[in-house]
Amino acid sequence: MSTLTVRQQKPADKVWIDEAGIAIPYERIKGSERANERKLPMLAKERIALRKSLELHKEKCFQVGAELYQLFIDENGGKAPKSKGKGNITRYNFDRSVKIEINVNAAIVFDEALLQLAKDKLDDLLNDGLSTAKDYVKPIVMDAFNNSGGNLDTKRVLGLRKYADKISDPRYAEAMTFIDKAIRRPNSREYFALYVRDERGEYVDVHLNFSAI
């Protein structure tokens, strides 16, 4: 977050400066405007301080999670367990009353030109007609390239690859190759969650999301 500075104007000031940089005599300022100036900058300062504390806490969470995971790996011959996702970490304290999770989500986007080549191959294949035994694949192929809100359904597009060994037509394999080449992961985001077990033995996510408090 960029550095933010909040100015709070005081009743002792003879003039207050408005958003246009114009000096307004204090006696001409309405009571509601004075109350706004008294309370809102104070609230903003508190929130900025909390945000800074949260940024430091977030950094510490990821550092501690990575450190504990590395210790686990070191104790097990340097081998990391297989994970369903990229860089996912789960750690517990000794009695498992506290659990942390770090998840890395690598967003997938497609190279549009390569994806169009894949679609052309599949369109060509569908136009020729698949065998009756493979008719169930037709709506799957068609739905995969339907836009939802202007975006392709990534899971459906990637899901086409699992049918490659069931369709012998080489055009299908060529289309899947284009899809593989089209995959791009321009960035990834890390998510940290901390859970504490309640009296019923269930893990409760200790949210720091403002709307979840």
SSE map:
Layout: E1 15-17, E2 23-25, H1 31-75, E3 86-92, E4 98-106, E5 109-110, H2 112-128, H3 137-144, E6 147-148, E7 151-152, H4 154-159, H5 170-182, E8 183-184, E9 188-197, E10 203-205
Antiparallel strand pairs: 1-2, 3-4, 4-9, 5-8, 6-7, 9-10
Task: Give a concise summary.
Helices cover 42% and strands 20% of the residues. The protein has 213 residues and is an alpha+beta fold. It has a 4-stranded antiparallel β-sheet, with helices on one face. Strands 1-2 form a two-stranded antiparallel ribbon.
Written overview of the protein:
- By secondary structure, the chain is α+β, with helices and mostly antiparallel strands.
- The chain has two domains: 1-81; 109-184, no CATH class.
- The chain is 42% helix and 20% strand.
- The protein is built from five helices and ten strands, in the order ββαβββααββααβββ.
- It has helices spanning 31-75, 112-128, 137-144, 154-159, 170-182, and strands spanning 15-17, 23-25, 86-92, 98-106, 109-110, 147-148, 151-152, 183-184, 188-197, 203-205.
- The strands form four sheets. A four-stranded antiparallel beta sheet has the order 3-4-9-10, with helices on one face. Strands 1-2 form a two-stranded antiparallel sheet.
- α2 (112-128) packs antiparallel against α5 (170-182).
- The protein is flat and about 85 Å long.
- The model has no long low-confidence stretch (mean pLDDT 83).
